Fold each of these.
Amino acid sequence: MGTTYHNDVVAWANEQAALLRSGQFSAIDIENIAEEILDVGKSEQRELTRRMAVLLAHLLKWQFQPERRCNSWANTLKHQRKSLELHLKKVPSLRPKLAETDWLEAIWTDALVIAEQENCLDIFPESCPWTIENTLSSEWLPE
C-alpha cells in the first residue's frame, strides 16, 4: 500500500477501502476520503442539473417548433423524465433543489443554451414558463 491520491485515484481508493475494512483507521487518508465523499454528492447534483437542462431544452423545442416535433424528441422527454424520477428516488435529498430559485434560473440558462445551439433560434422566453410539476409530469407537454 502507499499509492497517493494524486498518482492513481482508483488504486488509492482500493487501498483506502481495504484499510477501512481491516480496521486500520490510523493509516487511512482522512482528508482525501472526506473530499471524495463530498464529490459523490456533487456528482449527484450535476447529474440532476444535466438531466433537467436537457429536459427543459426539449420542452422548449417541443413548444416553439411544433412543425419539427418527432419521435426522437418525445423519446428524449420520456427518457429524461423517467431518469429524473429514478434519480430523485435514489437521492431524495436532492428534491429540495427543485424549489431553489437560483438553481432553477441556472438550469434554465443551460437549457436555453442547449436549445439555441441545437436550433439556431433565439425565440425562447427569458425565464421558465412552466411549473416543476408540469415539467416532470409524463402526461404534460407544452403547446
Amino acid sequence: MKYALIGCGRVSPNHIQAAINNELEIAALCDIVAEAMSKLTESFGLDAAVQYTDYKLMLKKEHPDIVAIATESGRHAAIALDCIEAGCNVIIEKPIALSVADADAVIRAGREKNVRVCVSQQNRFNRSIQYIRKAVEAGRVGRLLHGTATVRWNRGREYYSQLPWRGTWAEDGGCLMNQCLHNIDLLLWMMGDEVEEVTAYTDRLTHPYIEAEDFGMAMLKFKNGAYGLIEGSVNVYPKNLEESLCLFGEKGSVKAGGKSVNVIEEWNFADGLDDPGQVKKLYAENPPDIYGFGHTPLYADMIKAIQEGRQPYIDAEAGKRAVELILAIYRSAAEGRPVRLPLKEGSTRDYIGRFD
C-alpha cells in the first residue's frame, strides 16, 4: 500500500518505523519545514519519498492509500477531512480533534467516503495493556469498582518554546489533552467507555508562558456504577516520575506503570490462574521513549482493517470519546460544577483567556 506522512516532527520517526515494519511503500513526506523532512529522509534512507510542503498538492499527485497525520493538534481534523475527501484512509495522531464538532465531522466523513479512520492511541497495543484487557474481558476482575489514570511528568520552558503551538488553546490544550490523553483513553476503555458525570479542577500553576492547564484532577462516574480518578501534571520536579493505570474490582487489582504503561507492577486475582511474579516478569517492556512500541501493531491492524473492510481496532469514535471527556473536564473546572456526558458541543477554544 502507498503511504504518506503529513507532519515530520517529534513523533514522526515512530510512524515511519511502523510503516517500514509493515512494508508500506513510503511514497511521500509533507511538512512546511523542509529541514524536518530532510532529517527523516537521512535517518531512514527515504530517498524515494517525494517531499512536499503543501499536503493538498501531495494528495493530488500521489494518491496514497494511507495517510498519517502528525501535525500540531489543532490541524488534525481539517487535514483529515481533506485526506478523506481525497479517498485516503487516515491514521490521526492523538487527539482526533480539539472540538466535539470537528470529531463528529471526521467520523461522519469517514463513513460517507467508506474509508478507515484510525486514531493513534497506540498504548492500547502495549503487551501489558493487552494482557490486562484480556483479564477484564474474561471477567477475572469481577465487578469494576474504580480505576485511576495518573500522569506525573515534567515539561519546562524549553519544551514549550520548541514549537509555538504547544500549550495554546487553539492548537493544543494543556497537559490533559496533550500528555494525558493516552492514559485517559485506557481508563475509559477498561472501565466501560461510558462516563455519566465528571467533576474536575484544572489550573496553571508553574507555567505562566502557556495558555492552558499544567495540572488537572477529575472524578468520573461511569454509567455502569464504577468510578474513576484522573490526575495529570507536568509540574513534577525534577523529571518525569510515572505514568500509571490502576483497576480495582471485586475479584482483582491491577497496576500498569513504567514510561508508557508498558510494565505490569501489580497483579492480584482471586482465581489464582497465574503467578503474579511471573506475570510481572513477562510484561515489563522498556521502551526507549514515552511513545512505546504500539505504533507498529497499530499500523498492522489498520492495514488489515482496510483489507478486510472492517473498522480499525482504535477507530474515530474511540478518538472522540477521549477528547469529549477532556472537554467535559475543562468545562467542569471552568464552571465549578459537575458536567454530564455526552456533550452536545465543546472546544478547547472555549477556554481562551481562562488563566490570564
Amino acid sequence: MKLAGLQKLTLLDYPGQLACTVFTQGCNLRCPFCQNADLVLPERFGGCDLLEEDTFFSFLESRKGRLNAVAVSGGEPTLHADLPRFLKRIREMGFLVKLDTNGTNPQMLESVVEEGLVSYVAMDVKNTPEKYALTCGYAAGSAASHMLECVQRSLEYLRRDTVPYELRTTVVGGLHTQEDIVCMAKWLQGVRAWYLQQFIPSEQMVGFPGEDGAGQAQQPLDLHAPAAQQLLDMCAAAAEYVPSVQVRGI
C-alpha cells in the first residue's frame, strides 16, 4: 500500500469511535475543490514521504486499548490492489475499519465488505448525474459515462444496507446550486444518511487542468464556500426526498 500520511487521533472521521486516519496516495478523479492535492497529484504538488506499512502497524500495536478504529482515506483507497490484505491485517488486530471512497470501484467495495473487512463506509457523491463529470474534473465522454455507472452501482450496493454507511457531498459555490441539491435528493431517495459538507477554500487544491480530455481549454469556475444559510436552505429543500439529510461543517 502507498501510505501517504497518518492522523494519529480523530473524534470526527469515524462516528462514535476513537480512531486514527491513514491516507493512501493516488486518485482517479480530479475534483478541482479537493484539498488533498498532494495525495492526488504528488508529481505536481511535491507529495510527501510515504509511510512504511511496518511503521503504521507498529503504531496501531501501541494504540491497542486506546483506539477503537481506523479510517482508511485518500486519495482513493480502492485503487490499490492490496487493499484487502491491508484491511485484513487491521481487522485481525481488533480494530474496526471505516473506508472512505468515491464509489468508482464497486467491485473492490463489494469485495472488502463481503469479506467482513469493513465495518463502515463513507462514500462521496459529487453532484447530479448531469454535472458529475464536470465536478470530478472529467471531460464528457465514454470514460465519464463509465465512471458514473460505477458510482451508480456502488450506490445501489450500499442501499442494500449490507454495511453501515453514509453519503456525503461537499457543496461548492460555482458547482452546486439549490436546484442541483434537490435533483441529487431525488436521485438518492432511500439512502441511510446523507451529509452536506461546506466547502472550505484552500491555497492547495487540485484545480482545473488547462485543457480537458478533448484538448479544449476549460473555463475556470469561481469556486467559493456557500453561505451557512444557503447550505441550511439546501438541506431543508433536500429533506423532502431524503429525510436523513444533515449539514456538516458549519
Amino acid sequence: MRIALSGLVALSLSTAAVAAPVFTDSFESPAISTAYQTFSSGSMVGDWNVGGLSVDLVRSPVFAIPAADGNQYIDLVGSGPGAISRNLTTLVPNQEYQLTFQYRGNFLDPNPAFGQYLGLAVAGAGLPTTIGITFADSQQGWKTATLNFSATSPSTLLSFSALTSGTNFSGGLLIDDISVAAVPEAHEWAMMLAGLGLVGWAVRRRQQPSAALA
C-alpha cells in the first residue's frame, strides 16, 4: 500500500510539472500611472521588444476597457500597427507546447461598422497564426485563443504583431494574459492512466479488510 501510494504521489508531481505553465505574462511591468503609455519601435515593454510603429501599454480601470488579468494590457496599435516579441529560453526542442492568450478589439470610432483588426501570433513550428476580431466580436469582451506549436530550440521567439490598423475606424487589437505550457506526450498520458489504475487498486485493497470485519 505504501509503495502504491508513494508511486501515485510521484506520478502526480510529475504530471503537475508537465502541465504547469513554463511562461506567463499579463503586462503588469512596468506599472504605469496614466491611462496608457506609448512605446515606440526599438524600445522595450518589460522584457518585450517593440517593433512596427508603436504599441500602447494600457492601464485599467483608468481606461474604459478592463484588463483580462491584472491591471494592464497591450494594445498592438499605438500610433500605427506595432509588434511585441521576446525569447522563451526554457523550452525543450521538439516538445509540443500550448500558447494561450486573451484578445479583443479596441474600437474607438463612433461608427465602427466596417473592417476588422488582424493580428499575427508566431512561436516555433506550427505558427504563425492570424487572428481577427470585428466590432461585433469586441462587444462580447475578451476572447481566448489556444494555439499549439513545437519548440524549434531551447530559445524560441514568441511574437504578436498587428497587421492592420483597421478600416474606417480607429482603435487597436488588445492582448493580455499570455501563457505557454507543455502538452503531455503519449507516454505521459499512459502514465496518468496507470496512476488512475493504482488509485482504484489501492481503494479496493483498503475496502477489503473492512468488508471482512463486517
